Amino acid sequence: MTKEIQTFAISPLGNLDAYIRSTNSWPMLTAEEEKVLAERLHYNGDLVSAKTLILSHLRFVVHIACNYAGYGLPKADLIQEGNIGLMKAVRRFNPGVGVRLVSFAVHWIKAEIHEYVLRNWRIVKVATTKSQRKLFFNLRKTKKRLGWFNQDEVEMVARELGVSSKDVREMESRMAAQDLTFDPRPDDEIEAGLVAPIGYLQDRSSDFANGIEEDNWGDYAADKLGLAIKGLDNRSQHIICSRWLDDNSKTTLQDLANQYGVSAERVRQIEKNAMKKLRGAIEA
């Protein structure tokens, strides 16, 4: 990726809301458009195609980054890290595999965000209560003299600190443990014999890529429906809105017939024709 593309995509500079609106202004690509651009990049190194692929998928990065708001980290930084993952995915994407870019890029986007979260927010604390903190600091001093405890030393330390042997063993284990990244960066070197938790822990409750695609398709369909309704005549618009879009209650055919001075059957026909036009506009 060129420096120009990186600067344009990575940094949500200035007003974050304005940046998010700008990401939504880039049109979503159809499967065929995406394939053509990906092939130009993959086989010819076309950076203009790379830029289009990146810009059209920035909205997905924002969507993913918003799911990490609970960690107390700046949303702009989460988006920036996710954009780095998106660019790595675009660079490695092979259009011949037969999957959409968003499905491939989700892993890379989340990997970069995970790495940022783990660098800036420690999930597991060694000591959380006042007594645990006291035990932790005293145990550190004692271990400098004795090293790894045998059973007699555990009991001796427990007596000196006024705690149970179990508490000493648990704190010693916490102090000796090392953090293991749940989802390592794709280019990390993993020590022989070690497997990151993502390799054996599964979340069967959701498919993140499908969820993003469904959300964006819902927004797209809603926009098309709004335009299609505006294309109806005033009476048809009122009948459709009263029958199907009113949040309070569904107006009956007879009520609408009384308003327009026609039969209920005539209102039903107008409704049927209007629904047919709407379906045609959405499916087009």
UniProtKB/TrEMBL annotation:
This is RNA polymerase sigma factor RpoH. A motif (Interaction with polymerase core subunit RpoC) lies at residues 77-80. It comes from the Bacteria. Sigma factors are initiation factors that promote the attachment of RNA polymerase to specific initiation sites and are then released. This sigma factor is involved in regulation of expression of heat shock genes. Residues 77-90, 252-278 form the RNA polymerase sigma-70 domain. Residues 253-272 bind DNA. One of its GO terms (biological process) is DNA-templated transcription initiation.
